[in-house]
Amino acid sequence: MLFIEELYRSDKNLLDFNKSKIILRNAVRAIIVKEDIILMVFLGKTNEYKFPGGGVEGNETIEEALKREVLEEAGYNIIKIGKKIGIITEYGIALEGKNNIFKMISEYYTVNIDYNQINQKLDNYEKELLFKPCWTEIEKAYKANKIIIDNKCDSTPWIKRETRVLEILNEDIKINGVRHYFA
């Protein structure tokens, strides 16, 4: 694996691991590379980029969740899931109450897709954020997200996670090339 890291959302100092209940969410994210560009989901409302993916629901396997999320958010069917590239564990205040800690474990996988795109199947919040799949250069997506973070612009809670992964991929590709990102 290329990375295993922990991140804290901006509310790190408010987390009390001794007194709080931890609410765990497992998630999967797709790294889909074509030549020297990557498939991302662009959020028109906040002008940031995220990897296609999301939470594992109920009794879903990782494979089922990854296929469902890529289809919903990007409109592509997965034809092959490759290796796990990394894991990011995030901590923040849970929406379920200030006394709870939200812990999300996101696993990133290389993925090959069928390039025949179909319509997205977005949730309401994804529609509100104006999710749109797009092919872009990794460095461009990284720099766009970094500007949003540095300028403290409105953004999603997950922008730090996605920006960190883009940074890692960008650095790795400069040294090792993109070949090992094909599933």
Model description:
This protein has 183 residues and is an alpha+beta fold. It has one domain: Alpha-Beta Complex (Nucleoside Triphosphate Pyrophosphohydrolase). 27% of the residues lie in helices and 38% in strands. It has 4 helices and 9 strands; from the N terminus they run E-E-E-E-E-E-H-E-E-H-E-H-H. The strands form 2 sheets. It has a 5-stranded mixed beta sheet. Strands 3, 4, 5 and 9 form a 4-stranded antiparallel beta sheet that branches. Strand 4 and strand 5 form a beta hairpin. Helix 3 (138-150) packs antiparallel against helix 4 (159-176). The longest helix has 18 residues, at 159-176. The protein is globular and about 45 Å long.
Structure characteristics:
4-stranded antiparallel beta sheet, 5-stranded mixed beta sheet, 4 helices, 183 residues, Nucleoside Triphosphate Pyrophosphohydrolase, alpha+beta, 9 strands, globular
In short:
Helices cover 27% and strands 38% of the residues. The protein is an alpha+beta fold and 183 residues long.
H/E topology pattern: EEEEEEHEEHEHH
Total domains, how many? Answer: 1
Mean of the pLDDT scores? 94
Note the main sheet: 5 strands, mixed
Looking at the structure, the CATH topology is: Nucleoside Triphosphate Pyrophosphohydrolase
Count every beta strand, where a strand is a DSSP E run of 2 or more residues. 9
Query: What's the CATH class label?
Result: Alpha Beta
The structural class is: alpha+beta
The CATH H-level homologous superfamily: Nucleoside Triphosphate Pyrophosphohydrolase
The N- and C-terminal alpha carbons lie at a distance of: 14 Å
Describe the strand arrangement of the main beta sheet, using strand numbers: 1-7-8-2-6
